[in-house]
Design goal:
This protein is an alpha+beta fold. The protein has helices at 30-40, 48-55, 61-78, 99-111, 123-129, 141-167, 171-184, 189-202, 205-223, 229-237, 242-246, and strands spanning 9-12, 18-21, 24-25, 83-85, 90-92, 97-98. Strand 4 and strand 5 (90-92) form a beta hairpin. It is elongated.
Length: 248
């Protein structure tokens, strides 16, 4: 007899909320989505009272607990293998695969200089690091805190990924990683610097100069600042001293 194949339960929090069992999407109402996402972001199982108070802060304790029970019932009715509930605590089932958790692990590996991590210098990792956490959820303070933490992590990881790909001679992929970092934070000079380094390593002095000038315009228009000497020196060392003159 063949062993029963249990469909994988996957929770997507990057690019937007999506819950799937196998290839089938599980429809959930807003309150149930918030409950699942909240539990996915907790390192330890929170108490029911804490969950209710955080997700329904403007409701009375009685009303918040009722909303929690209703949302929990809806989740378990739609997919019973997502949340583990005890009389006092709730947690996401260990079997649920969360894309943001995997992206965080990948980011830490990329940042670990002792890890060669060739197996994760892929399009999939780049896609995960190019997206913020639940980007359309603006009204939730608890989401904002987690989003900012992940945002900073992925920015650093994208820059280092760009550097690693450049060192490996994978210039096209390095440019993609650098552009993703710039898109995520256009005023972040270190992201522009990583991209300039790729163009110089590939011998594309025009692209390097254009990226420098783009960064310079942004910094001037938005912050009234000039690029740092560290960025300008990259082009001067490559035989483009006129860049330094244009800073005056």
């Amino acid at each position: 007899m063949h062993a029963e194949v249990i469909p994988r339960v996957t929770l997507y929090l990057l690019h937007g909320f999506l819950l799937r069992v196998g290839w089938q999407t599980v429809p959930l109402m807003s309150g149930s989505q918030r409950l699942v996402a909240f539990l996915a972001m907790r390192e330890q199982p929170p108490s029911r009272a804490f969950v209710a108070g955080t997700l329904w802060p403007d409701s009375s304790e009685t009303r918040a607990n009722a909303s929690l029970r209703s949302s929990l019932w809806r989740v378990q009715r739609a997919c019973e293998s997502v949340i583990i509930a005890s009389p006092h605590r709730l947690c996401l089932a260990r079997e649920v695969v969360v894309d943001q958790h995997e992206a965080v692990l990948a980011a830490h590996r990329v940042l670990d200089r002792s890890d060669a991590c060739e197996d994760i210098l892929t399009v999939g990792t780049l896609s995960a690091l190019s997206a913020d956490l639940l980007p359309d959820w603006y009204a939730e303070d608890w989401v904002m805190a987690h989003r900012e933490r992940y945002h900073q992590l992925r920015l650093h990881a994208l820059e280092v990924m760009c550097e690693r790909l450049t060192a490996a001679g994978r210039y096209g992929e390095a440019v993609e990683a650098g552009l993703a970092a710039v898109r995520a934070e256009p005023l972040r000079e270190s992201a522009h610097r990583a991209l300039v380094k790729v163009h110089l390593a590939e011998g594309n002095r025009f692209e390097a100069t254009r990226q420098y000038q783009s960064c310079r315009r942004l910094l001037r228009n938005e912050l009234g600042l000039e690029p740092s000497p560290k960025l300008t020196a990259l082009l001067a060392r490559d035989g483009l001293p006129e860049i330094a003159k244009k800073r005056r």
